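Example 3.2
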Amino acid sequence: NARLMQNTQEQPKPEHKKQIELEFEFVKPTLLIQPNPSQSFVTIKIINAEYSTNKIMSIKNTIGEIVKEYTFAGNEINLNLNYLPKAIYFIEVKTNKIVINSKLILN
């Protein structure tokens, strides 16, 4: 009888909810450095990122030492790097939300 009662009790009805699927394609923020390699003048542009007011850009040598730092607004900075020796450098741009890295060759 107990078994029969269990089966006859009302089961809770499942809630019907609409499920909406949204598909987002995440595009990784990058730095566009032109020309690269360069002899001295470069334009560094942030691609696919929200632009905060101020950004800090560091130029680092191959052992990670900061050679020079710049603060800029917008999504682009033009630089004359003729004071740097010919070498490979790493560019790091920090915003309030992200850090983007890239490589620059001065020849």
